[in-house]
C-alpha cells in the first residue's frame, strides 16, 4: 500500500484504542505521528506499520502529564514540516476509588492529561486546519461523559468536559471543512482498568468490556464521515438512550452499580 500523503497524529498510540486507531489509519495508507510515553513501544509499532502498510511514521515520546509536553509535540511536528490532517486525542487515564479517598495530586495530573493536554493540542492543530480549511479531529469521550460515574468521579468529569467542549466546537466550525467527532465507548478491554486500579469494578468482573478494535473502527468511521459524535456498541446505544429518559440521580445509581467494587467476582 502506498502512502495517501495525509497524516494522522494519535496520542496514547502505544496501546488500547489508540493503537487500534493507528492500525486503521495505517491500513488506509495514512502516515502517522505516534505519541505516547514509551518510545521503545512506539518504535516497535512504527516499524511494524511501516513494513506492513508502506507508510511513514514519526515517533514522539512525550509525557502529556507535563503541561509543556503538548506544546513540545506541536513544535516537533512543525519542525518536521508535517501537516496533520487528522488529530486523535486518545490519551487518557482515571483513578478508581471514592473521591474522598483518592490522592489529590494524582487527580490533578489526570485533569492535566485528560483535559488540559487535549485542549492545547486541539487549539494548536485546529488553527492550522482552519487556515487550510481542511481537517478532522477525533476526541475520546466516554459513555460516562453524559452519565455520572461514581468510583470514577474525576475521570467522568473530565470526559464530560471533552464531550461538551467538542460539541461546542462542532457548532463553531459550521460552514468550514473542519470537523470534530466525540467517540463515546463504554468499558473497553484495554489496560485502562489496570492503570486506574479498577480491576474489581463490577463491569470488569462481569466481563462487560467491549473489544478495542471495534471501538476504534466506530470512531474512525464516524470521524471520516464528519459526524459530531458516536456511541460505540449497540448495548451502549440502548443504555445511552435509556439514561436520557432517567433523572440524573437514577442514572447515577445505575452507573454506581456498574462501577462499584465486586471483590472476588469471576471475570468471564
From TrEMBL:
Could you list this entry's UniProt keywords, alphabetically sorted.
Oxidoreductase
Coiled-coil stretches, from where to where?
Answer: none
> Does the keyword field hold Oxidoreductase?
yes
**A Pfam short name:** adh_short
Q: Which domain of life is it from?
A: Bacteria
Single Gene Ontology MF annotation: oxidoreductase activity
* SUPFAM superfamilies the record matches: NAD(P)-binding Rossmann-fold domains
Family, according to the entry, reads as follows: Belongs to the short-chain dehydrogenases/reductases (SDR) family.
Protein name (Swiss-Prot/TrEMBL): Oxidoreductase
What is the species of this protein? Solimonas fluminis
What broad taxonomic lineage does this protein's source fall under?
Answer: Bacteria, Pseudomonadati, Pseudomonadota, Gammaproteobacteria, Nevskiales
Amino acid at each position: 500500500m502506498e502512502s495517501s500523503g495525509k497524516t494522522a497524529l494519535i496520542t496514547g498510540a502505544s496501546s488500547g484504542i489508540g493503537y487500534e486507531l493507528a492500525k486503521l489509519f495505517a491500513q488506509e495508507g495514512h502516515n502517522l505521528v505516534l505519541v505516547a510515553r514509551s518510545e521503545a513501544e512506539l518504535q516497535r509499532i512504527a516499524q511494524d506499520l511501516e513494513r506492513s502498510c508502506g507508510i511513514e511514521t514519526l515517533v514522539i515520546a512525550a509525557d502529556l502529564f507535563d503541561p509543556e509536553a503538548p506544546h513540545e509535540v506541536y513544535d516537533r511536528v512543525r519542525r518536521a514540516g508535517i501537516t496533520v490532517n487528522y488529530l486523535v486525542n486518545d490519551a487518557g487515564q482515571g483513578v478508581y476509588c471514592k473521591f474522598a479517598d483518592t490522592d489529590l495530586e494524582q487527580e490533578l495530573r489526570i485533569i492535566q492529561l485528560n483535559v488540559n493536554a487535549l485542549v492545547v493540542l486541539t487549539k494548536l492543530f485546529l488553527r492550522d486546519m482552519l487556515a487550510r480549511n481542511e481537517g478532522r479531529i477525533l476526541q475520546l469521550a466516554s459513555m460516562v461523559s453524559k452519565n455520572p460515574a461514581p468510583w470514577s468521579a474525576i475521570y467522568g468529569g473530565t470526559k464530560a468536559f471533552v464531550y461538551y467542549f467538542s460539541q461546542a466546537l462542532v457548532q463553531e466550525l459550521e460552514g468550514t471543512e473542519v470537523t470534530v467527532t466525540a467517540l463515546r465507548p463504554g468499558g473497553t478491554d484495554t489496560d485502562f482498568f489496570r492503570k486506574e486500579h479498577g480491576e474489581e469494578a463490577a463491569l470488569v468482573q462481569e466481563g462487560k468490556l467491549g473489544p478495542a478494535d471495534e471501538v476504534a473502527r466506530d470512531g474512525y468511521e464516524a470521524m471520516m464521515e464528519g459526524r459530531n459524535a458516536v456511541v460505540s456498541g449497540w448495548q451502549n446505544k440502548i443504555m445511552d438512550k435509556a439514561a436520557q429518559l432517567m433523572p440524573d440521580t437514577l442514572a447515577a445509581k445505575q452507573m454506581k452499580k456498574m462501577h462499584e467494587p465486586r471483590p472476588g467476582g469471576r471475570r468471564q
